[in-house]
Design the sequence.
């Protein structure tokens, strides 16, 4: 009986330690000009202590030294690069509630789902470029109705993403994929689209 209690106690300690240690994000905070048009944005350049190899993993803390008079509430953009994020991290907006731009690239991202993206519904800019995306579920972006900029370039997509709810989308970058078909239906629900970049795909039908 004593051994069982000791075993359960050790298991509880190990589990708690793993949860608290594994999914913290440390930020290097700075103002960064993502484009000439947008100007400087207060940005978190994030690093994880452990890999995101399973779906639904929550961020437990965001740490880092802010610029003078700034706080997590001032962060507009997050960049995650050269990490191991097979799945999207969750609960990030809990710590960075005013985030409007998310850049995850060169991070081995393979899966994005509607449930994973739902908490990011306030985003206006997303770049998941230079990852390993093969497929985007048809409803993945349905909750991101304010999205204006989307880049899925340098992935392995074989078909166009469904963007029926992105009425505000202005720029869509899909170059360097394996998309073979583009139809009028793929873009007819994008009344504000100004730029569609699809070079270096495998287009056979338009």
Sequence:
């Amino acid at each position: 009986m004593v051994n069982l209690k000791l075993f359960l106690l050790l298991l509880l300690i190990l589990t708690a330690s793993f949860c608290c240690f594994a999914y913290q994000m440390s930020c290097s905070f700075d103002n960064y000009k993502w484009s000439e048009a947008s100007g400087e944005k207060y940005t978190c350049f994030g690093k994880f202590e452990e890999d995101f190899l399973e779906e639904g993993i929550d961020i437990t803390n965001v740490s880092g030294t802010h610029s003078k008079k700034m706080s997590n509430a001032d962060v507009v953009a997050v960049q995650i690069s050269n990490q191991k994020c097979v799945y999207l991290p969750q609960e990030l907006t809990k710590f960075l509630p005013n985030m409007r731009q998310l850049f995850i690239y060169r991070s081995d991202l393979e899966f994005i789902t509607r449930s994973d993206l739902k908490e990011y519904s306030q985003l206006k800019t997303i770049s998941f470029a230079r990852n390993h995306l093969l497929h985007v579920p048809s409803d993945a972006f349905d909750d991101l109705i304010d999205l204006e900029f989307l880049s899925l370039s340098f992935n392995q997509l074989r078909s166009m993403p469904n963007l029926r709810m992105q009425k505000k989308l202005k720029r869509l970058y899909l170059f360097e994929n394996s998309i073979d078909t583009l139809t009028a239906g793929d873009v007819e629900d994008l009344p504000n689209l100004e730029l569609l970049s699809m070079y270096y795909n495998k287009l056979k039908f338009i």
Summary: Residues 16-21 have pLDDT under 50 and may be disordered. The beta strands are 24-33, 40-48, 61-63, 77-81, 101-105, 125-127, 149-151, 171-173, 195-197. The CA atoms of residues 25 and 48 lie 5 Å apart.
